[in-house]
Amino acid sequence: MTLIKSISGIRGTIGGKVGDNLTPVDAVKFASAYGTFLKNSQPATRNSKLKVVIGRDARISGPMIHNLVVNTLVGLGIDVIDLGLSTTPTVEIAVPMEKADGGIILTASHNPKQWNALKLLNEKGEFLNGAEGVKILEIAESEAFDFSDVDSLGEVTVNDAYMDIHIDEVLNLPLVDAEAVAKRKFKVVVDGVNSTGGIIIPNLLEQMGVEVVKLYCEPNGHFPHNPEPLKEHLGDICELVVKEKADFGIVVDPDVDRLAFISNDGEMFGEEYTLVAVADYVLSKTPGNTVSNMSSSRALRDITEKHNGKYQASAVGEVNVVELMKSTDAIIGGEGNGGIIYPESHYGRDSLVGVALFLTHLANLDVTVAELRASYPQYYMSKNKIELTPEIDVDAILVAMTAKYAHEQISTIDGVKIDFANEWVHLRKSNTEPIIRIYTEAPTQQAADALALRIIDEIKAVISK
């Protein structure tokens, strides 16, 4: 059982002891810290109440955590716009639309069902930066909370229209052409992992004239497989795409900010190539720069340069990608885990935007999804992890690996990334789980896997010393 406090929020497993897991006490404490941070940040001359937008995915623990967080904010004198079942990108677009002071998404993203989390937004509907996250952690540690008296309590307004509003916003994007998509009469299988993606993705597709085959689209929080959209978890949809003779399949994680496609032949399109394909379309219409994180495929760099743009890589983490996108005027970016960030909509990973742009791209081409995938630069990744125990010194491991490969091109902006001539490895401690992530990429899957195994063996050798 685990509780992880970081600058991006608080994430943990449900149940257990206070301070060791995401218990009701921890949820109230962290919600109190966030609300107090917002109150401390408002101008002294402000008379009106603060306002926060809250939405949640369909996790079993969602209603419990939701009630605790909402009523904690009410107790602080903060008004709440309650979206109920929602998605991360939906909450992100709702915050500025509501002129709110912040937002909280109750979701543990791709983590299994025993996890939940509070993901925190600023008034722009974007994730808080590092300095703001540190302040909230300090407030939580000090428990310097000042709750409101009975006449100053916050009020709750329920608004369950925002998933429809979100769909409308996506359909109105200039590069989304629902009419062209409808003419192609696509058939698509959707795996919503029994969360809110099972509601919003089929609705979007149907409004674009797509025939939808639903798989695990009941938002009951009982995930039918590991919710991280990786190949080893997606056998059911791969089989169903072929059985239904569908054009492709769509998989999202529980909070709908990660997007993966299944090609018409039942093979993975590759979550790394979600961003590559969407960027290819966007850059073909509006040339410009791109950004992804250091653990993402080189293929985006290649596609960007094909369209005469400039590619740059940020540290892992959505807030880091967004910061670099803003400073380089990137017109599209994201993360290789299937996260699409399209500023024309908003600065947040959004599977709806990715789906709509991908469908429009496909509608403009006379190829299958498998043929589209084959047209892109061929790179293969291996994504591995090593479970951490408290006695393991991660920093010492990274220092040792840096020294071992000092003769190669190395970046220590975020963990350690070692760039070889034709392949790379990125080692970093996860912000969300007690693990070291080991990502490799090479021209063949065999080479990527071999590099990963070699690095894992070298890390284990360091640990055993």
TrEMBL record:
GO cellular component: cytosol
UniProt domain Alpha-D-phosphohexomutase C-terminal: residue ranges: 403-457
Domain Alpha-D-phosphohexomutase alpha/beta/alpha: 8-145, 167-266, 273-379
One Gene Ontology biological process: UDP-N-acetylglucosamine biosynthetic process
Alphabetized UniProt keyword annotations: Isomerase, Magnesium, Metal-binding, Phosphoprotein
InterPro entries: A-D-PHexomutase_a/b/a-I, A-D-PHexomutase_a/b/a-I/II/III, A-D-PHexomutase_a/b/a-II, A-D-PHexomutase_a/b/a-III, A-D-PHexomutase_C, A-D-PHexomutase_C_sf, A-D-PHexomutase_CS, Alpha-D-phosphohexomutase_SF
GO molecular function, one term: phosphomannomutase activity
Pfam family, one: PGM_PMM_IV
Identification of the protein by name: Phosphomannomutase
Source organism of this protein record: Flavobacterium lacus
